[in-house]
Amino acid sequence: MNNVLLYLITVVVWGSTWIAIKFQLGTVEPIVSIAHRSMLAASLIFLYLILRRRLAPLSLRNHAMIFMQGLCLFSGNYLFIYPATEHLASGLVAVVFSTMVILNMINGAIFLGLPISRMVLVGGLIGLVGMVAVFSPQLSDLDLSDNSFRALLLCFAGTFCASLGNIFAARNSLERLPVLVCNAWGMLYGALALYGVALLLGTPITVDWEFSYVASLLYLAVFGSVVAFWAYVTLIGNIGPDRAAYTSLLFPVVALLISTVFEGYQWSLLGLAGFCLVLMGNWLVMRRGAA
């Protein structure tokens, strides 16, 4: 039940962040907004750890691994994903990002020697087919012009980067490093990396003090980063990066369910069938003793 709760937290929170991100777009460059989000989240976790006296010391080697986790999972992947969204439909981005289910299995086998579960592989493939069906209207409009093709490559690069971040997180979990300590340092390193890139690109580091921007930033930092990444990284340690990655198939669907209520999204029969496939794949992946 503990893993089920962690799974639900990850899916529901990340599924709801899509609407919050809309309020971040505007006067502040995306790279800076993401850096603000990571820095605020890191500050909150550090404050909690210091007050609870749980800020455990780490070796330089572990700091290096956490730096890589932060670079890949909390910042670097966004550097690829955000530019890609300018030229690709959000549905296609969601489908490409969902391939992390397969990438985590492959990278887990290569870098951590984890066995590839047949049920997880079958469930992941079924879920991926379901995602294609859910977003089929947007996929049918894909134009493989130069900009779109480059954006597609960027999207795959961002997904691969996030998958590597999952592997570093799994490695840190195998070393029994505290999840919140890893997340705090990782988010700090990720935020500093993004601020550094912004400065190199000459991007102004600003803050929009409008209520909608500040409120969405707080939601993304507290729930989207602190809570959801705590749940997700803990889940990686509990059930492995391959099964935890199935959340990447579910939270875009949750985002569509929210869009149905607040934005009038219209479901098709193919979309409903795809949603059922995603749920079926999830059952195969998460059932006890999947092997």
Please explain how this structure is put together:
The protein has one domain. It starts with a helix and ends in a 5-residue tail after the last helix. It has 291 residues and is an all-alpha fold. The mean pLDDT is 88. 79% of the residues lie in helices and 0% in strands. Residues 4-135, 151-286 form the EamA domain. Belongs to the EamA transporter family. It comes from Kineobactrum sediminis. Its main location: membrane.
Describe this structure in a few short sentences.
This protein has 291 residues and is mainly α.
Report the principal-axis shape.
globular
H/I helix tally:
13
The largest β sheet comes out as: none
Oligomer: single chain
User: Which structural category do the helix and sheet elements fall into?
Assistant: mainly alpha
Percent of residues in helices: over 70%
Record field, number of beta strands: 0
Number of domains: 1
Series of H and E elements: HHHHHHHHHHHHH
Fraction in beta strands? under 5%
Distance between the termini: 20 Å
Residue windows where pLDDT falls under 50 for at least 5 positions: none
State Rg: 18 Å
Mean of pLDDT: 88
Protein name: EamA/RhaT family transporter
Membrane topology: Multi-pass membrane protein
Family: Belongs to the EamA transporter family.
Pfam families: EamA
